[in-house]
Amino acid sequence: MTDPNVDQVRAHTHDGIEEYDNRLPNWWLFILYGSIVFAVGYWLVFHTLGIAELPRAKYNDEMAAAAEEQLARMAEGGTTNESLQLMSTLPDKVAEGRRLFETYCVVCHADQGQGNIGPNLTDQYWIHGPTPMDHRAVVTNGVLDKGMAAWGRQLGPRRVDLVVAYLVSISNTNVPGKEPQGEFYGDQ
After folding, report:
1. How far apart are CA 46 and CA 60, in angstroms?
2. 79-184 — its CATH code?
């Protein structure tokens, strides 16, 4: 029987290097096994069972809540380019704007805004201006000589803003469709 307090050399050598056959310290084994248990638990809780939100999802939720608060503060001063731009970063607002777009705008602008009868809304060319407030004016008042109906009375200001938020979110995505119309405004 060998003495456990004496270092034991293994029988093999490699390139003249001898290897000791020592037991790992308890603190090292505790960290190893603890890390394995933690990793399996993390995987089960976050990825497999979905009991808790992933940190990235929680961060996105907090950022959306902060943007909602900022949007509420901005609403006191009326609708602006900045408030519409901020609204276009909120997934719930964009999704609601997309539903409205699919209900009222798809006939003329196609399902992804690539243009049908109306112009392509995803390129960098704009007939009536590139800013969110320009889009809001067109949606609200229409362009009767081009056949664009005025949606302001039917939708109301809040829903018009949601449609514009969706338009801002799809602008510069360059979905292939109708040829460019209007002036080139680049990345605005």
Report:
1. 16
2. 1.10.760.10
